Amino acid sequence: MAEDLTKHPPPASLFHVKNYPVPAHIQEFSSFFARKGLSLYIVGGAVRDWLLGIRNEDFDFATDAMPEEVMDTFHKVIPTGIKHGTVTVLFRKQQYEVTTFRVDGDYSDGRHPDSVAFVRNLEQDLARRDFTINALAVNAYTGVLTDLHDGIGDLKRKVIRAIGDPEARLSEDALRIVRACRFAGKLGFAIEDKTFTAMKKLSPGLEAVSGERIHEELSRMLLGARPSACLRLLQECDALKIFMPELDACVGIEQGGYHIHDVFTHSLLACDAAAKNGASLNVRYAALFHDIGKPETRGGTIAGGHTFYKHEFVSERLTAMVCERLKFSRADTERILLLVRSHMLHYTEDWTDAAVRRFIRRIGVDALDELFALHMADQEAIAGKSSMLTLGRLPDRIREQLHAGTALSVKDLTVDGKVLMAAGIPAGRHMGTIFQDLLELVTDSPEKNTPEILIAEAQMRYRKIKEQSSTLSGT
């Protein structure tokens, strides 16, 4: 729901809070509740972020209206989560997700309440929320702010504090441990002592949280300006070793040589650098995972530094385990694995043009920019600044090859399957092998990418395949 809240700046000081500037379209929406003697509140992040001067147009609504009353009030209502009191109202070409005030029963699965009871009381509804800074509510018609848990005070103090008994709040849903780290890291807040003690004690409960939910929280962390602040808190409260032990194992693994940080700190700094440079989420994950194979491969010292022979391949294997555990998509997993196993770039100026073309083929044209972004983040984590100088002329040479239009895949060849079948080569695995041979040929000699030459080469290779088959069969 879009309205530019920069037109309504937050209070100059949290000590002098005025009414929230409710956008006109939300005020009109809430008027339908008011006419029936009901209330609608903006709750959670939008209120918190406004007080902090952070733009947030993701509005959540809570109401004393029962779900059936909301559905009777508006023409178009989708019962998106009606079991928990949530419906989506379509009004004036906008969508409003509205949840009835409720109190939750026990959380026997550590994630969902066994039961919910709808109530008419805002105080009861706010008491079930996770942290004080997220328990702020604004009347969507009048703009009057309600703070029953000193959330504004904790914003002033820059503290993340659970509502009520921290162990009770975190036991309800262990993912709140991860959320506390995200909020604290993102906002630059501290975690209140009792809340942090409860987080540390209850972190094993994260084993019961689905990989998808943890993945979503991690992605939000990595999309922030400084992921390391969140990730370090995860490690300090023992949460990291529950769902990502491969990264936790990097703590204290010294590298020596030109590395002044242990593997864990280096990985976090690389992730920060990727974020600072505006790299994609997959690059940020690759930066975080690129060295997780080092604890397993750490060897003796050479020139003051430890060896980590072929750590990139161990890192790839461990990263695959993380991606499977946290339910990454197949496409994201494949891209992250490619970046991790390829991050050790050892370019020298004596590479031939054919070597450059093979490099492009191995990485893929669409992944080159992300690999270079990872390289720059890795370099910045080592030296404090990013530079492409370590790659020499490789980026320029790649551009030259791409501009020349050289064949980098089978589809770039001047012959296709129909042409080869017309030349007497049947479809099947032999044709696939021949296509790969032809691609190797034109990688070495681009000038041979002509139909006449490739057809002749394909026929010759097919004859050799048949001869070999005849020899093996004894005929």
UniProtKB/TrEMBL annotation:
GO molecular function, one term: metal ion binding
Source lineage: Bacteria, Pseudomonadati, Spirochaetota, Spirochaetia, Spirochaetales
One GO biological process term: tRNA processing
Entry's EC annotation: 2.7.7.72
Family: Belongs to the tRNA nucleotidyltransferase/poly(A) polymerase family.
Entry annotated with the keyword Transferase: yes
Keywords of the record: Magnesium, Metal-binding, Nucleotide-binding, Nucleotidyltransferase, RNA-binding, Transferase, tRNA processing
Domain HD: 263-374
Protein name per the record: Polynucleotide adenylyltransferase/metal dependent phosphohydrolase
Pfam families in the record: HD, PolyA_pol, PolyA_pol_RNAbd
Cofactor(s), by name: Mg(2+)
